[in-house]
Amino acid sequence: MESSSEIARESGRLEGSVGYELKKVQHDLRLNMDGELKELGVTTPQYAALSVLAEEPGLSNAGLTRRSFVTPQTMNQILVRLEAAGLVERRAHPEHGRVLQAYLTEEGERLRRECAELVDAVEERMLSGLSGGERSNLLALLRRCSAALRPEDSG
């Protein structure tokens, strides 16, 4: 059985590459999210940080960086802006004073919920042509692909 990369090489077309198609979907998803979130004055990376903090209050810059797929410098800029806007507050860790933990404010949580509604609608539009079973299968397959590329998850 031929792999998708072999099929793509033989056809000479990027469209036969799973990696290319994944990147194309990610790009289209990001553009749509950016467009929707712009209405609320929020960037997609800011929304990611707000969402992660809603799930894991008190994360440090390093924890947020890992969960939000940005560099430490970018996350610091995001947090500075969110803090200045009154959406996030940072407090010194009780045991490690140099570590700052970030928490959503009430306003930050309110805005995150508004953003989530917009992002959920974008995701629903993206998945609208798939049945419930196909959606579940897609999610499971994407998780397996991701796990296969992470050293801590491989054999």
From TrEMBL:
List where the protein spans the membrane: none
Q: Which PANTHER family match?
A: HTH-TYPE TRANSCRIPTIONAL REPRESSOR YETL, TRANSCRIPTIONAL REGULATOR, MARR FAMILY
What organism is the protein native to? uncultured Rubrobacteraceae bacterium
- Which residue range or ranges hold the HTH marR-type domain? 15-147
Any idea what this protein is called? Transcriptional regulator, MarR family
Q: Which SMART domains match?
A: HTH_MARR (SM00347)
InterPro entries assigned: HTH_MarR-typ, MarR/SlyA-like, WH-like_DNA-bd_sf, WH_DNA-bd_sf
Biological process (GO) annotations held by this record are: response to stress
Q: Which domain of life is it from?
A: Bacteria
What is any Pfam family matched here?
Answer: MarR_2
Secretion signal span:
none
Q: Kindly list the GO molecular function terms attached to this UniProt entry.
A: DNA-binding transcription factor activity
